[in-house]
Automatic annotation (TrEMBL):
GO terms for cellular component: cytosol. InterPro entries: ADH-like_C, ADH-like_N, ER, GroES-like_sf, NAD(P)-bd_dom_sf, QOR-like, Quin_OxRdtase/zeta-crystal_CS. Keywords: NADP, Oxidoreductase. PROSITE patterns: QOR_ZETA_CRYSTAL. Residues 13-326 form the Enoyl reductase (ER) domain. It comes from Ferirhizobium litorale. This is Quinone oxidoreductase. One of its GO terms (molecular function) is quinone reductase (NADPH) activity. SUPFAM superfamilies: GroES-like, NAD(P)-binding Rossmann-fold domains. PANTHER family: QUINONE OXIDOREDUCTASE PIG3-RELATED, QUINONE OXIDOREDUCTASE-RELATED. SMART domains: PKS_ER (SM00829).
């Protein structure tokens, strides 16, 4: 057996519910691999899981974290395509990334190409695959279109804005501070709106000459949802993929017709990576974009794994920009 240091929690709540403990790991079961972590990505979904507010709450006690980069240390029966000593990244599967070692389903692992930095991959893989499905498959953006991306200096927003710049879209981003506006512009935003100082709906109307945008990508939720609808052109699409400010109230679908035959979708990365061939194709696209410099991990904030509580506090307080990574 392998001895691992892990975070577990037995009740939902604030960051202090996370407990640091030593745990013995059994050998991987059929279809599983065991890894030693090199870097662990932190995502807002981790906070939802810790609070117990994301879809069906996790069964407790539970681990936390859904992405990481590591070295394969053992293979379960029936696993093909991987070997001991190989570097892999993973997204999804049972939460448990906040650990020095872990086992996970081989189906959620991806071979990391040589030449890519482990911290950069950990900073980019979950958020990068999220950006990939949002802008390439969920509501595909074409050259010349205009999009509004909320939280444009955050982890997903930073990556998406870089990719949208390469596509040739006009990107309007909202941010919480002047400092984050600079980050957003550096990552490809043509217009950065500090929402605490400016009404973003009015500013979007000004930028677009009253026409509205083709797509709004909204991970903020309650504070922005209705105004996001009003930023769309007729037959535009609102992609609601998070709720950092709280859940979106029930929607009267008749409003979508009244506001311009609008579309609204609430996607999940789980559904966009459930098919292995799609998962691998998305990863191939992302890893190529990293290697080519199209997307990069800008402003990565690292914390020792044992300081995961602090990482959560800073993320919830919006004191971070870009990606957050834990280092074992």
């Amino acid at each position: 057996m392998t001895e691992a240091h892990v975070f577990r929690f037995s009740k939902f709540g604030a960051p202090d519910v996370l407990e640091w403990r030593t745990q013995a790991l059994a050998d991987p079961a059929p279809g599983e691999i065991q890894i030693r972590h090199l870097a662990i990505g932190v995502n807002y979904i981790d906070i939802y899981h810790r609070r117990g507010v994301f879809a069906a709450p996790l069964p407790l006690p539970s681990g936390l974290g859904v992405e990481g980069v590591g070295v394969v240390t053992a293979l379960g029966d029936g696993v093909t395509g991987f070997s001991v000593g190989q570097r892999i990244a993973y997204v999804g599967g049972p939460p448990g990334a906040y650990a020095t070692h872990r086992t996970l389903p081989a189906a959620r692992a991806l071979v990391v190409p040589d030449g890519l930095d482990s911290i950069e991959v950990a900073a980019l893989v979950f958020k990068g695959l999220t950006a990939e499905y949002l802008i390439h498959r969920c509501a595909p953006v074409l050259r010349g279109e205009t999009v509004l991306f909320h939280a444009a200096a955050g982890g997903v927003g930073s990556i998406a804005c870089q990719w949208l710049r390469q596509i040739g879209a006009t990107v309007i981003g909202t941010v919480s501070s002047a400092r984050k506006a600079e980050v957003a512009r550096a990552n490809g935003c043509d217009h950065a709106i500090v929402y605490s100082e400016t009404d973003f709906q009015a500013r979007v109307a000004e930028i677009t000459g009253g026409k509205g945008v083709d797509v709004v990508y909204d991970s903020v939720g309650a504070e922005t949802f209705m105004k996001s609808l009003d930023c769309l052109r007729p037959r535009g699409t609102l992609v609601s993929f998070g709720e950092s400010s709280g859940p979106v109230p029930p929607l009267n679908v008749a409003l979508l017709g009244a506001k311009g035959s609008l579309y609204v979708t609430r996607p999940s990365i789980a559904h966009y990576t459930a098919v292995r061939s799609e998962f691998e194709a998305a990863a191939k696209s992302l890893f190529a974009a990293i290697a080519d410099g199209v997307v990069r991990a800008s402003g990565v904030t690292t914390y020792p794994l044992a300081d995961a509580h602090k990482a959560h506090e800073d993320l919830e307080a919006r004191r971070t920009s870009g990606s957050v990574v834990l280092l074992p």
